[in-house]
Amino acid sequence: MKILITGSTGFVGRHLVPKLITENHQILELTRNINVSIQLYGTNTQKYVLNDDQKALVQHVEEFMPDVVIHLASFITALDDYSSLIKVLNSNITFFCKVLDAVKSAKIKLFINTGTFAEYYKGDDNFDPAYLYAASKTASRSFLDYYSKVCNFKQTTVVPYTIYGGVDTQKKVIDYIYDSIDSEVPIDMSPGEQVLDFIHIDDVTDFYLKLIHSINELPAKSNFKLGTGKGHTLKEVARIIETILGKKTNINWGGKAYRNSDVMYAVADRILALRVIKWKPNVKFEYGIEKYIKKNS
Q: Is the pLDDT of residue 167 over 80?
């Protein structure tokens, strides 16, 4: 299958693309990080270096004629200052629309979009973005609705919850908890009572693969909340890590205040994924933490 992917050198992308290569899919990366792409994937993917020439992008995509688009690229921030606003709009709205415009004549079968659990501040099914970033992801869905209707392709939005495991260039909350083990100075964190659904990167990438394999089973439009369906507080995560390592974390719980818009409960309802494509996560949290520790020790 021919797959166009954005965000291929990001956290999810660098774990997903090798699996796509293993399955012998033809891959076209839309990338600004050509050197990183070459380091990661060599000549196993086709690469288009993004620029301002939309006509050239459209022509290149039409020549490739993808069956599926996987959109992972995004600018993520918890800030809402003007500088961050411009970056959010450029990446999450303008670039998103550039991709949609580029594929509108390519006769794609499926567009896989990526959202965020922060679009659901109250932890229910109602859009209520917690951050400016989340608001941009919610707004972008309207553009996807338009193009999928006009161009007659299926669309699905994947909403990953708290991803962990693997290797990333940016630290995640579990990294800070783990790093505190060897820290001489206590690490300031929030009070740690927020309940989050931690899903391993292996399950995340397997879910994207499952979507590709399930094109015929997917409805015209779908929204999948991607998690385990089980929540843990940050303090519970710290205790699990302590139990596995037999060492104490060094965290100053409450050293940082909750942000005004912090999501306090974010646990995925995975019923739709089970019902529509018969998918469920395979990596139990404790085992995933053990894998994480082995990889980082």
A: no
